[in-house]
Amino acid sequence: MEFRLFPNSFAKLMLNHLGASIVPEWKLKRSINNKPILGTLVGVPVLNPPGFSRRQRAFLDGRDLNRIFPGKPAGTSSQTYCHMILEKFAKKFDYHLDLHTAGLGRVNSLYVRADMNNPITHQMAVLQQSQIILHNTAPDGSLRIASMALGIPSITVEIGNPLQIHQEFVECALSGVRATLDWLNMLPIYPSEKIEETSSRAKTTTCTRSYWVYAEHGGMLQVMPKINTWVSKGDVVAVVRDVFGNILVKYKAKEDSIVIGKSVNPICCAGERVVHLGVCDDEFGKKK
């Protein structure tokens, strides 16, 4: 494995996104067109063609591929497909950027998930200049975690909302990809190409952990705080009402936290995700 620590090193970087995540990678291609690249840059515009064509995250068998990795050589269609992706694509690269958006019915901030105790992925995360960085090493069945288990530094970049192109977030994310290429000595960024900071990435909040608030009752859901805003312990972050407008339950923040993502679907069932809150402790945990 070759790292940026050595001048003029050659590296292989893989970009991909899944299903309902729409990230216009052609913009990156156009921005680096006719410029020499040291190493190999591979973009996989659609890693889940069946989900993409049906405008959803699920694969042919209804499973979310990013919960199945590393997959199995002999298993369900989603398991064998994930195994193929890992064997024929991911294993051949030195670094990996996994580009995503929120799931259907939810919205996200521009945020990065990475192991911040790992010096390589720590730097990769910082280079994205996102609104939020979330330290996360949980074995969640994602391509990122499967890549990390193989010793391939990998981060996930969440770029806004599903089934739409969030223009400002996209520009920030592509700038982060170019900064990563520059850091790897793959594609030097010239002064004239530097992109000024936008309001979306004026300041990055680094969270040591996060948690989802889940609905205990079904009904009509309203999540109050905006994305990338702070809430204090005890603040009401969401309410569920019946169809007549009567409040059934209020959900409060357990501690001071920042809103990473939230549900925008007004129809809520018990057990569904309501709001994703990030917490800033003194140091990164070793597990999550």
TrEMBL record:
Pfam family of the protein (one): AstE_AspA_cat
Gene Ontology MF: a single term: hydrolase activity, acting on ester bonds
SUPFAM superfamilies referenced in this protein's UniProt entry, alphabetically: Zn-dependent exopeptidases
Domain Succinylglutamate desuccinylase/Aspartoacylase catalytic: 27-182
Keyword line: Hydrolase, Metal-binding, Zinc
Reported cofactor(s): Zn(2+)
CDD domains: M14_ASTE_ASPA-like (cd06251)
Protein name, as recorded: Succinylglutamate desuccinylase/Aspartoacylase catalytic domain-containing protein
Organism: Aplanochytrium stocchinoi
